[in-house]
Design goal:
Helix content is 19%, strand content 31%. It has three helices and 21 strands. The radius of gyration is 25 Å and the shape is elongated. 19% of the residues are buried.
Length: 331
């Protein structure tokens, strides 16, 4: 058995890293072996089958028919919160030899230059409605009905505009640890505005007694992207990202902290909760889920599960139905 110099914590970390390297090497070797089992044309065909269908959509080929020929109704007409369900209905579909589908766009989008934010296929000619989870992208949205193949889509109709009730409303809250166990970053998305937005937080639910002002306000533009669809048909304004740092001095490890972010002008998010991190970071990466921290063994177990999932994805993507491969559940 190989022994590494240093403390037990350092030895654990070294073992963890080597295990990760060995796992990656094994995964790479397995994927290469599987690819070599099949002719190149067959591998390419399998990869094509697993592509996201709308990556094949060419907006420049979109043809627009008379919008009045096919009316769509979107309800509710006002989006009260991000992620609210909007139902789109229509009276019936015209006879067509090809498929029909509905896409969600911002009102400023040009369907001949932009792919939809979301889409759903209409499965049968008798279907009369679809339900979409619509996110607050800080702009009103509209739904379009299409028919035809993805390389020659035809717009048949357009819905009423669904207005976003509060385009400034803060959304997409996320947390990040720092190198200081008593400080946690909170980031969210909104629009540029003054004064800067804040986080209200405290250890008593509904009674925040601390304030953290966003000291980092950033965004990105089309030219900042690396190219491809991210700079052309797939680009939309991402909004502005606010980041504030919560000072948890005096808060006990694993004690619950309640917080909400935003401002009086933009509105305040719902109240969320987190658990204060331990006073000293663990020697191995820990996993935080719903505020509960798990030990190193569970972190390694999770890593093993992720590796197994990666192997499964590679095998499935390359082999398709040509391989008889099974994986037993991980205990």
């Amino acid at each position: 058995m190989t022994r590494y110099p240093g403390t037990r914590a350092e030895q654990q970390e070294m073992g963890f890293r080597m295990g990760l390297v060995h796992g990656c090497v094994l995964l790479f070797a397995l994927s290469g072996t599987l690819v070599g089992c099949f002719p190149r044309w067959q591998v390419e065909q399998e990869a094509h089958d697993f592509m996201e269908p709308f990556s094949l959509l060419n907006p420049a080929a979109v043809r627009i028919f008379d919008f009045e020929s096919q009316k769509l109704q979107a309800s509710p007409s006002v989006l009260s919160y991000s992620g609210e369900a909007v139902t789109v209905t229509w009276d019936g579909l015209p006879p067509a030899a090809s498929q029909h589908w509905v896409g969600v766009y911002l009102v400023s989008d040009d369907v001949t230059k932009t792919v939809p934010m979301r889409y759903q296929m209409i499965k049968t000619a008798q279907q009369r409605s679809l339900s979409f989870k619509v996110m607050n992208m800080r702009e009103d949205v509209v739904f379009y009905l299409f028919s035809g193949t993805l390389d020659q889509p035809l717009v048949l109709g357009r819905s009423n505009v669904v207005m976003v009730a509060n385009k400034k409303f803060p959304t997409g809250g996320r947390l990040a640890l720092t190198n200081n166990s008593s400080r946690i970053k909170v980031t969210w998305t909104s629009v540029w505005m003054e004064p800067k937005q804040q986080v209200l937080y405290g250890t008593t639910k509904g009674k925040p007694d601390r304030i953290a002002t966003a000291d980092e306000v950033v965004s990105y533009k089309r030219g900042d992207m690396c190219g491809g669809a991210a700079t052309t048909v797939g680009y939309r304004d991402p909004g502005v990202f606010y980041t504030a740092v919560l000072d948890l001095h005096g808060v006990q490890p694993r004690q619950r902290v309640y917080y909400r972010f935003g401002s009086k002008e933009a509105g305040w998010s719902s109240e969320y909760a987190l658990h204060a991190p331990p006073s000293s970071p663990p020697s191995l990466p820990s996993v935080v889920q719903d505020g509960a921290e798990h030990d190193d063994k569970e972190a390694v177990s999770l890593l093993f599960r992720v590796c197994v999932c990666c192997v499964f994805v590679v095998v499935t993507a390359v082999c398709g139905e040509h391989c008889d491969v099974t994986f037993d559940p991980v205990p």
